[in-house]
Amino acid sequence: MSIAVAAPASDRNAPAQSLWRALAKAFLHAFLICLGIVVLYPLLWMALSGFKNNAQIFGNPFALPIVWSWDNYVLAWNQGVRNYVTISVIVTVASGFCTVLISAWTAYGLTRTRMPAKPIVIGLVLGGLMLSPTVAVIPLVRMMQALGLYNTFWALIVLYTAFRIPFSTFLIRAYMLDLPREIDEAATIDGATESQIFWRIMIPLCKPIIVSCVILHVLFAWNEYLFAMIFSGSDQTLPVGLTSIMAKHGTNYAVVFAAMTISALPIVIVFFAAQRYFIRGLSEGIGK
Amino acid sequence: MQAGGADGFRLRHLLSFRWVAVAVIVLGWFVYYPIVDNFIVSTTNEDIFTGEVTNIGLANYQRLLGDPVVWTALWNNFAYAVISIVFQVFGAFLLAAIIEGLYSERAKRFWRAVYFVPSAISITVTGLLFYFIYQPEIGLLDALLRGLGLDSWVRPWLGDEKTAIYAIIAMSQWQGFGYSTLLFAIAIQKIPREYYDAAVVDGAGPLIRLWNVTFPLTREMTGLMIIVTVTGAFQVFNEVMVMTAGGPNNSSQVLGTWLYQQGFMENDFGYGAAIAAVIFVVTMLTGTAQLIYTRRRRVQF
Q1: Same domain assignment for residues A161 and A26
Q2: φ, ψ for residue B219, nearest 5 deg
Q3: Looking at the structure, do residues B50 and B71 belong to the same domain, yes or no?
Q4: A139 vs B22: CB contact, 8 Å cut-off?
């Protein structure tokens, strides 16, 4: 199919011109493939280095592992990665659940009720999109110390929820605005309460955007570093845990490579399994 | 239905606040309050031994102006923004146009997914990965340069004051361009086919179509991406922290890492808060620009 670059067959091409086009096309193909190699080869190198021993790592970096042994992966898993994965899963699931639930509530209130001063509330909630976590981090340390949440994963659950509510609400609200009002008006006439409409009608109808929100939240919470580094203490999540493995096993690079690969794999699988929802979330997020 | 008349009616409207109450409380408590508090902290100095807090007015901001590392950091953030605009906005636009123009639907999906993979992986992992790639002894880059006979180019990329920040920025381009390519691909798909058909009838070649149809009709996305990229560039923290922690000799500090260094390593919360205030001002400016931009666009359509 031809949109931006290739010419349709019906063009009034002279043969020389079509040869030129074929060359250009071959060049662009080659470019895409080279770029693909630049993108994927480092990741492949990371996974392969996890199979090597230190002597091989200091040898030719392009060489394949001589013995395919899972030892480094097992070692990395047992020496910390298992705990980091557990904490990351707890924080990601709990904050994802809270964020989406609170955001759906808020989006419902902002689209389906006749709340007074609604523009102010909308501005307050969506204005949070412009605020950067870096700016809040110093006061938050004192606050979390006062609340007794400092150095626990509870701080991360609270903060990931708070800082992601604006974005999730933004996505769900945009989706709810596009849903026809006749559906919930009919339910009101039939005597349904607001709560019933929310749980039985709006949530099922919003399922696609909720899935997108969940996936974008997983991507964020699994990878977040600044808050995780400052607030999690001994409850380290994967990104922070990786840097401590690096500090601990600084000389045994193969274990570090194995730990990095274990950490990257789940999110890559989630991405490929749910690409459609990823793309919907991204396009709604920036396009509206 | 409304037994209470006007009062009952008003009560029902007030009750609808319950839907937004949790979000407003959580945001107020953990997002808005700390950001306001940051400005208060930035006017104080805390003695780390006695814990005594004294108000020192704008002294921290005066110190900012005379701190050479702040200027290095600002320059590095600026370089981050400019290079990212070149690769992740204009480069990604061209790449998206090539992908959307060349292939079958299946091939398009394949390339978009391939280029996106690094964006799904955490910056900590990609940062550590490139930390190894840039290593002179075990890294891919210097091995590749030696293999190509470019021995004079071989260097410890992250250990050299001249190259450290640019090596980090290069990693960031590698990681991020697939994300913006995906967004541009979505924008290009929204362009009605008729425009291209009309351009073909007028005898426009592929490059002319790219310049006269694709580029102007994705201009909103380009504008938004520039703003988002600049905002992101001034919030950079993770990759610098993982790859160099601002070194060598503070040459790769950015505002985020300098804030961390001053606030958490030197325990100077007041000065750290003043650096945070600079980040706040810059991101507020770009955020407001984004708001105005999207508003204007909505009116146009």
Answers
A1: no
A2: -60, -35
A3: no
A4: no
What is the C-alpha to C-alpha distance for residues A122 and A117, in angstroms, rounded to an integer? 9
pTM here is: 0.87
Q: Is A132 in contact with B235 (CB distance < 8 Å)?
A: yes
Verify that B30 and B167 share a domain, yes or no. Answer: no
Token pair in block for residue B60? 């921290």
B98: domain CATH number is: 1.10.3720.10
Whether B178 and B270 share a structural domain: yes
Judgement on whether residues B13 and B123 belong to the same structural domain of the protein: no
Counting the structural domains of chain B, the total is 2
Q: B129, A136: Cβ pair inside 8 Å? A: no
**Residue at A9 is within a domain:** no
What is the C-alpha to C-alpha distance for residues B147 and A39, in angstroms, rounded to an integer?
A: 20
User: Which long-range contacts does A141-144 make (Cβ < 8 Å, 24+ apart)?
Assistant: A141/A230, A141/A231, A143/B30, A143/B34, A144/A231
Give the pLDDT confidence of B66-105 residue by residue, as tens digits: 999 999 999 999 999 999 999 999 999 999 999 988 768 8
Apex CA A217: angle with CA A213 and CA A220, to 5°? 145
B43 in the same domain as B153: no
Q: Scanning every residue of chain B, which has its alpha carbon at the shortest distance from the alpha carbon of A256?
A: B128
* A82 plus A197 within the same structural domain: yes
Where residue A189 sits, what CATH number does that domain have?
Answer: 1.10.3720.10
For chain B, say whether A60 makes contact (Cβ under 8 Å).
Answer: yes
From chain B, the residues in CB contact with A102 under 8 A are 22-23, 26
| Domain assignment of residue A35, given as a range | 15-49
**Contact in structure between B158 and B243 (CB atoms under 8 Å):** yes
In tens, the pLDDT along A201-245 reads 999 999 888 998 998 899 899 989 999 999 988 889 999 999 988
Distance between CA atoms of residues B89 and B122, nearest Å: 21
| B194 touching chain A per CB within 8 A | no
CB neighbour list of residue B164: distance below 8 Å, 6 or more residues apart: B157, B158, B244, B247, B248, B251, B252
Same domain, B44 and B163: no
Chain B within 8 Å of A122 (Cβ-Cβ)? Answer: no
Q: How many domains does chain A have?
A: 2
Instruction: State pLDDT tens for residues B205-262.
Output: 888 888 888 888 888 888 888 888 998 999 999 999 999 999 899 999 999 999 999 9
Half-sphere exposure of B69 (CA within 13 A, CB side): 20
Q: Please, which residues bridge with residue B44 across strands?
A: B55
pLDDT digits (tens, 9 = 90+) for A43-60: 999 999 989 888 788 888
Q: Which amino acid is located at A148 in the chain?
A: G
Among A188-192, B60-64, B145-149, top mean pLDDT goes to: B60-64
Is there a contact between B123 and B176 (Cβ–Cβ < 8 Å)? no
Which domain, by its residues, includes B83? 62-300
Give dist(CA B100, CA B84) in Å, integer. Answer: 22
Q: Which residues of A touch B111 (CB under 8 A)?
A: 32, 36
Is residue A116 less than 8 Å (CB to CB) from chain B? yes
* Residue A203 token pair: 């949530």
Q: How is residue A196 written in tokens?
A: 């019933």
Window B:129-168, CB contacts with A under 8 Å: 129-130, 132-133, 137-140, 143
Residues B25 and B106 in one domain: no
Same domain, B10 and B132: no
